[in-house]
Design brief:
alpha+beta; 5 helices; four-stranded antiparallel beta sheet; about 150 residues
């Protein structure tokens, strides 16, 4: 990753739909040169996907929460297979520490949260943290100067 790739990556992290010609003007390259660099970053696995950010509240999900799960003995593997079927789960990570799992979920209301927790407690003990607001969201990956 050279400086130009870092600049291109910064532009795409702000707006993945920005045109190659617009990025080229910002970084001092032609549109085809930017396109080639982006393709190479995709091939290398640096850029993995382009996604749309959705407003969950506008879609009727009034609650967002972080839920941790401490799996019961023998329940972790079944949970890892089943979690992919939960529509509420935006992100799920297997973690170290007292809990095995941490999830970011969206829910319509408190009743929906209660039903979702009732499903989860068949796999283990849960802790729920309601998200009040975003402090940092989808922060850019930046070059670290050592």
């Amino acid at each position: 990753m050279d400086e130009l790739n870092w600049k291109i990556l910064a532009c795409l992290q702000v707006n993945a739909r920005e045109s190659f010609s617009s990025i080229g003007r910002k970084v001092g390259l032609t549109s085809p040169a930017v396109k080639e660099r982006v393709a190479k970053m995709q091939d290398a696995g640096i850029i993995q996907d382009f996604k749309t950010v959705v407003s969950h509240t506008h879609l009727g999900f009034q609650l967002r929460a972080i839920i941790t799960l401490r799996a019961f003995v023998g329940k972790l593997k079944p949970f890892l297979e089943h979690v992919k079927n939960f529509d509420e789960v935006l992100n799920c990570y297997r973690i170290t520490g007292n809990e095995n799992i941490i999830m970011e979920v969206v829910l319509q209301n408190q009743s929906h949260l209660e039903k979702f927790i009732d499903t989860l407690i068949t796999y283990g003990e849960t802790r729920t943290h309601i998200i009040l607001s975003n402090v940092i969201s989808n922060a850019q990956v930046k070059k670290v100067n050592k």
